[in-house]
């Protein structure tokens, strides 16, 4: 409404100016275009600055008060209760997690702190962020894919395109499902840009053939107090994805995202276990037998810790998935005789499809 009032006043003043000056239609057109550009400048920049200021405030509040692991142990039932012989019901889903490629934030802070390289990466990132202050974009907040992250997503796409991987005895069935060769799967992603872009690039050939949607789910948003986990997209909207726009065109990528379940930013007081359970509940309401989910290392790691049996010492509980890695497993939903809903990852079903885990180097 405010923009409408501004443009109405502009139109009135412009008409008066043209009448007073008695200029020709060509001069009128040139003057109109110039004034429109000035008007856009002075209406867009203040709005972007207000938006950016609110974004920074939100990130600061999150960094100070966030405690997403709180309540995890009490909020999730022991997975081994799913082994109770007196179950009322039991059903399973296959899940394939895809971690996003390297983000600009990862590039700055996760590659060591040697002064000569870290300072260069940090200064470059700060300069880019300062240049984006009058815009609704950021490299720190909802950090996008870096150049290396794009390559990692492309490498996963290349891996999936090879027929010998689809015919492999161990991972072949999962590869076929990711490629869309087999029916009965749905693709979802975190609402953060790096995850959405990774899934789109990695599964682009499938998306191009099927025309299906990637469902954005706020429940998959990364769990951390760092500002790179703050989303820039409002509820039920898709954040601009310049990486995809440059490669495929804006209309081509926007048409393949469904934002009806994209609830916007997580609350600073979020409890991650509640979103784990919401994600599970959503999955088991779907008819598809397989859910392909793009997301984040800390979220995935804590999810594995929550639903793998307590006695399991699987690497997924200790190490992060590598960038653009893909892990498949079976999740069981059981309802006990007391009416408790219990979720359990079957340890023997954990399969590294691509990439695996980022192991710490032995000294």
Could you characterize the architecture of this molecule?
It is a single chain. By secondary structure, the protein is of the alpha/beta class. 47% of the residues lie in helices and 13% in strands. The chain has helices at 2-21, 25-65, 72-75, 104-109, 115-131, 147-161, 163-166, 172-179, 193-202, 204-210, 242-248, 250-254, 272-285, 297-307; strands at residues 89-99, 185-190, 214-217, 257-258, 290-295, 326-335, 341-345, 351-354. A hairpin with a 5-residue loop joins strand 6 and strand 7. Helix 1 runs antiparallel to helix 2.
Please sum up the structure shown:
The chain folds into 2 domains: 64 residues; 242 residues, Rossmann fold. 47% of the residues lie in helices and 13% in strands.
List keywords for this structure.
363 residues, alpha/beta, Rossmann fold, 2 domains, 14 helices, 8 strands, 13% strand, globular, disordered N terminus
Topology:
Layout: H1 2-21, H2 25-65, H3 72-75, E1 89-99, H4 104-109, H5 115-131, H6 147-161, H7 163-166, H8 172-179, E2 185-190, H9 193-202, H10 204-210, E3 214-217, H11 242-248, H12 250-254, E4 257-258, H13 272-285, E5 290-295, H14 297-307, E6 326-335, E7 341-345, E8 351-354
Helix pairs in contact: 1-2, 6-9
């Amino acid at each position: 409404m405010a923009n409408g009032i501004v443009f109405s006043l502009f139109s009135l003043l412009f008409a008066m100016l043209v009448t007073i000056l008695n200029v020709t239609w060509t001069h009128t057109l040139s003057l109109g275009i110039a004034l429109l550009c000035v008007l856009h400048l002075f209406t867009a920049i203040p709005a972007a600055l207000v938006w950016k200021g609110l974004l920074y405030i939100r990130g600061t509040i999150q960094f100070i008060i966030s405690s997403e692991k709180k309540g995890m142990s009490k909020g999730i039932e022991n997975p081994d209760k799913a082994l109770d012989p007196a179950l009322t019901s039991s059903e399973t889903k296959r899940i394939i997690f895809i971690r996003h490629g390297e983000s600009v934030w990862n590039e700055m802070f996760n590659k060591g702190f040697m002064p000569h390289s870290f300072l260069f990466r940090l200064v470059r990132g700060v300069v880019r962020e300062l240049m984006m202050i009058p815009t609704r974009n950021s490299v720190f907040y909802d950090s996008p894919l870096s150049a290396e992250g794009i390559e990692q997503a492309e490498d996963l796409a290349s891996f999936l395109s090879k027929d010998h991987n689809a015919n492999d005895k161990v991972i072949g069935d999962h590869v076929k499902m990711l490629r869309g060769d087999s029916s009965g799967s749905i693709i979802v992603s975190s609402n953060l840009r790096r995850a959405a872009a990774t899934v789109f690039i990695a599964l682009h050939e499938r998306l191009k053939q099927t025309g299906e949607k990637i469902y954005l789910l706020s429940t998959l948003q990364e769990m951390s107090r760092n500002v790179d986990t703050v989303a820039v997209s409002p509820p039920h909207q898709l954040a601009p994805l310049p990486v995809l726009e440059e490669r495929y065109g804006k209309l081509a990528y926007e048409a393949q995202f469904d934002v009806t379940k994209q609830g916007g930013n997580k609350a600073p007081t979020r409890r991650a276990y509640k979103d784990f359970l919401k994600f599970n509940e959503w999955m088991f309401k779907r008819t598809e037998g397989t859910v392909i989910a793009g997301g984040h290392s800390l979220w995935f790691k804590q999810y594995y810790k929550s639903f793998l049996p307590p006695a399991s010492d699987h690497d997924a509980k200790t190490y992060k998935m590598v960038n653009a890695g893909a892990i498949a497993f079976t999740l069981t939903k059981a309802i006990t005789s007391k009416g408790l809903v219990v979720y359990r990852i079957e340890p023997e079903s954990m399969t590294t499809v691509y990439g695996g885990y980022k192991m710490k180097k032995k000294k």
